[in-house]
Design brief:
Rossmann fold, five-stranded parallel β-sheet, 12 helices
Amino acid sequence: MNDIVVTEFVDQWAVDDLAKDYKVHYDRTLVTKPDELAKLAAESPAIIVRNLTQIRGPVLAAMKKLKVIGRLGVGLDNIDMDECARRGIQVFPATGANTVSVAEYVIAATLVCLRDVWKANADVLAGKWPRNDLMLGEAMGKRLGLVGFGGIARAVAKRAHALEMDLAAYDPMLKADDPAWKQFGVTRIATVEELCATSDVISLHVPLTPQTRNLIDAKLLATMKKSAILINTARGGIIDEAALAAALQAGTIGGAAIDVYDKEPLKAGSVLEGAPRLWLTPHIAGVTAEGNVRVSSVTVANVRGALQNLGIKGSK
């Protein structure tokens, strides 16, 4: 019997640490083998996953003795939280561990998109000198609109403040008198409609829920500035991808940097293919060497602590 099954990549030292006390089965390809995963984890009290492993339906039902889920990251939309609550399964996201990684990605994406700096690479190598075509914008003085104002958005705000950007934010979960607004330099608490209409850069920081699915749709995209940059490091599905592709093709907005997608991995022939001024990355905003160490450390500690609190000893 395996005590802990790990289905996606994690630092080997983290596996070795858990293996001191528990029987650990680590196979980063299990994410693509749900049937095999269900069999391997059928008697396991703990599982560790990232964002692609779907802990729901027949897979979750097969895990008869599951008590603890360690999430290498923070999003929980790949886990059936209602069923976990019903069965008393504890779920531990690595809250805060990759905050810096994502915040730095958002700032980098902001600067790259505003300057469009890499567009000239082929021209420069070909002996051309398109300086006038690249006389684009600075971050200073631009409005950064944050949709959601949790920990990662606040880390972005802190860094954007150093760039002298104006900060607007939307978060229906925070009261208008919450000290966080002032603490992190937000000058405008806006509705999502106002934020999208007035911001030069819009960065998404909300979970994927029925209420946020396709939150950024054709209607909202049409209200944005033609120079506006849209950044999504939160969850795929928050943006209507077909509407985004159409807006970019029509020049309705200035550009987008997208790290997360409605279906991952993004398949060839996606509606996003061919859209101009679009920068795509494979869900890596929160994945840095340093961030992965923090995520692994937090997850190992969470899982070990939870098993110990439950009185579950390793079978080694």
